[in-house]
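Minutes, project check-in

Agenda point 3 was the complex the collaborators sent over. CS summarized: two entities, 1170 residues total, and the question is how they sit relative to each other. Sequences were read into the notes so everyone works from the same version.
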Amino acid sequence: MTSLEKRLKKIFGAPRKGETFELRSGLVSQYADERKDSIKRVIAAMTVGKDVSSLFPDVLKNISTHDLEQKKLVYLYLMNYAKTNPELCILAVNTFVQDTEDPNPLVRALAIRTMGCIRVDKIVDYMEIPLNRTLTDDNPYVRKTAAICVAKLFDLNKEICLENGFLDILLKLVDDSNPMVVANAISALLEIQSSNTNDFLGGKFLKIDDKILKKLLMTLNECTEWGRITILTALSEFTSTSSEDASHIIDRVTPQLQHENPAVVLASIKTILKHFENLQSKAQTEAILKKLSAPLISLLSTPPEIQYVALRNIRIILEKYPNLLSRELRVFFVKYNDPAYLKLEKIEILVRLSNDANAALLLSELKEYSMEIDTDFVKRSVRAIGQVAIKLQKSSKLAVDILYDLLTTRTSYVINEGIIVLQNILRRYPEAFVTTIIPIIADLSIDDLDEPESISSYVWIVGQYCKSIPHLDLKLQQIISNYYDIDPAIQLAILSCIVKINLVKPSKDSQQYLQTILNLSTQQVEDADVRDKSYIYWRMLSANDSELSKSIILKKLPILNSTIEKIPTTLLNELIDELSTLSSVYHEPSEMFIEADAKAKSKNYILDTKENSKIEDLQRMAKNEIVNNAVKAENLLDFDDDDEYEGFDDANSSSNTNHTGNNNNNGVSSNVDVLDELNDLFAGLSSGPTVATNNNNNNNNNNINNNNTINFNNAGGNDTTKKTNEDLLSLF
Amino acid sequence: MASSIHFLDIKGKPLLSRDYKGDIPSSALEKFPLLIIEQEQSNNGVPILNDQGINYIYILHNNIYILALTKKNENVFSIMIYLSNLIKVLTNYFKNLEEESIRDNFVVIYELLDETMDFGIAQITDPKILKEYITQESHKLELLTSSNNNEMKQPPNALTNAISWRSEGIFYKKNEAFLDVVESINMTVNHNGQILMSEILGKIKIKSQLSGMPDLRLGLNEKFLNSAKESGNNASGRSGIELEDIKFHQCVRLSKFENEKIITFIPPDGEFDLMSYRILSPPLKPLFVINYKFQNHSNTRLEIFLKVRLNFKQKLTCQNLEIFIPVPDDIDSPKFQTVKGNLKYLPESSCIRWKFKSCNGGKEYAMLCELLLPSTLDAKNLEIFKKKPIKFSFNIPYFTTSGLQVKYLRINEPKLNYQSYPWVRYITQSGDHFEYRV
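CS then shared the predicted structure for the full assembly.
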């Protein structure tokens, strides 16, 4: 009756007493079920984010109980609020220690699990005895829980953990008879090793020798799915020394490829790929690679979020073994209801899988995608068509025809993207498709485009193929109409374009435009690059040697081989070892996104791993270039020096137009990237020679000064203002 | 693996959290709603993101975010799989995992979170085993027995045994095993009636009601297994079928299958999926041949005509055939004409459902639908409508497309030595993606 009264009071009672008060009185109630009910309500309040830490002592009073559920609830509360009342936690220690002796293994395990989760310094001192006891418990469920508790203790207090020899016990547990205990012992060891160096652990870490290897391979077939992942992880971090070892491991891991848990499958693939390198027989490696393709595909029959991770990993594997999935193209076709991020990632895989055999199929699929509604997806598809065209010469005709169809539909974002793609195609096949592409350009006005990158591409094509473009002067007029206001990237493109036109197909109008543009660039435009470039052009043109200018400006560009982004070799090798981790999703080494890892590795090292490959490649290229030019360089004329510089600049500027504002995107060939950076490198390298030839340059400048007129290709001189000349001088 | 696991509603408001490692400040969670919006805008909603050294990994399920946080370069694939398994476990417990059921069952969820993961390391996610010692009615049971400590729940032996999926001492009066061979077909057909993509996703489901620790051996027809053998080594199976990536329940002895192609196992009790397989690009004809036309009368009225021929043997019966024909959003007063089947407009998914209880192969049906377009019709609405594929959903019993046959299921229980009865059923059904582009 009294309980009923109380409940009635609760309902009708004065609200000013507050919820906390009610809970408190419930917690100290004389009735067990009422106390338990109150604990539940406290936990409910905690769950929705209310602060119930003030009830700590009252909840604690309920800790000694035989009701397992109530015990769990109190423990849960303790774990959450231990930090707010570290002193009072000590009161709970006794119960914990008692519970680790309870006849019921569930209670023993629960006690040691919870104790490890109370992250209070004081409690650490009391952990030695119960932890020792549970680590040698008869029941495997308790042992496996205690194994993980060692990792928790280590996280709290490394010294105590080492002093008490818990790591030794953990290492012994690796040889336990129960597979789950083995797996958890290894998990704990891996966890400890991941955040600490071996030196600190005093050699107490998992060393995989023949005996342990045998144990691991045996346990692999017996333990739960999660245990298998742990063991596979340990195996993938182990370096096999001999071909026999590697082949043995691979043989034992291969059956796991058929496991129903995709994480086990990917962990197996990772392990196999790791030991794969050590195999000697070629036939064997081929056979193993073939076995991997079906399991890789199976990773895709999962929810979209998981598929995404799988696709990012597949991309890394494909980069290393490009032919692995070449027959599986259709699996990667986009489904109507795939989320956007999945669609885009699938296209990445599709373009990498394209080959002569499947190109027709792929292109018709990509065409289908290009007519979808989602803007980003459509753009990416159009770009993909270009990538296929550039990768596969045999299919380029088909691809260009599809692009032609798409561009004539005239949806603005398709056109914007299409123009960039067309430019790349012209860079790859300078002659083949001129008759198809030029009419598109001729029909298009610059006002149809609104993205800087597209406009730059458009301007580049007009400049490069000016001979074939009808009504060139009119087009030029449109192009330069807004010159002062537009994006610097486009200004650079226009500069190159107009200079080119004046060398190839000069007309009265075009010369007029050139003069206007040069004046504007040198006097009004604020962007330093644009100013510099126009000065350089100006000076070159005033040399009055049209043949020389032509040989500089109209230099043949290197052929684009691919516009599919590649992962640099060093990074790739690193990522192969990082399959299934966050690195594999971000495609970055861990120190790029994790502070602790970045600190752990010295600055030098970061430079090494991150830039190494690029810099190596660059250095190699630069060397070749220098060797090639050495003969020329020996009898350098003052202009030859410029010649080279200009040559690069031109190549560079056109590549600039190629991918301005798109540096992190896929449309950029690594080739172009390298050129870009090569140029930077040369800028550094050539500082010496520039100084050396300064005198000559000055002489030349004086000549110009004396003439006081600058001639453009013998075609009508134009007076320049004195100011311009001074500016020009200050350049050198 | 993970430092903490969180459940959040669609707006990113936390519903329930479990912090395993305590190395992540609570401010990280408060930022989550902003971060998902940002991610949606700048990164197409990729479900993994990094903000100030903290990595957010999440799955969206029933308008609930299940989120894991970590600071280390962890095995993100395992975390994702753990999250999706956790969803399965919780769904198994509460039928539906949604805001409401999370609020109502927070006690059990905490228990499950503790049991499935410890210090961020996944432990066990098999709902059958978990249900043996974590039950929703636990407190009712214990109130009666709390005086008697010996009857308290023990951790099931199975939990840590090599055979972690089956407990000892199971007993049935009548020992039976039911086998279902279910094949789901996914197919994308383009507007010319050519198959762009097709695959069969097969599953053998078993419902075992067998006593003791029975050892089972499943025999499949040779032709089927041979094609599996070859897919590993030789490129294309000679029978024309390419069996790919067979996956087995953890109870199947994988090395035995790898070496001898024999499927042996000790089954878990009750229902489970024994194996799954995939057949890529099987030599299939399109199961349906369609003729689709629509006519737009000056953006006010739309006429849709669809003719479907069931392109398979007459003796096969197709049950619960549903054809989803897309229409623009917000249409008005649709009128239907057809000889067979039931037509209904489903406004929430903007389509017309054409439903048949059952129909035989070889038949042909047509329908005509007339509807009014909304007066505020925009071009995009119409554009989306034109891109939407027609979807099919159906099942055909007593039939496997791949030709898989169960030859025998030998049941051997060494101690009890009982008589047992295996039953086998076959069914072919549509997968999630059975689409005709138009």
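Noted in discussion: The radius of gyration of chain B is 26 Å.
Follow-up: revisit at the next meeting once the mutant set is ready.
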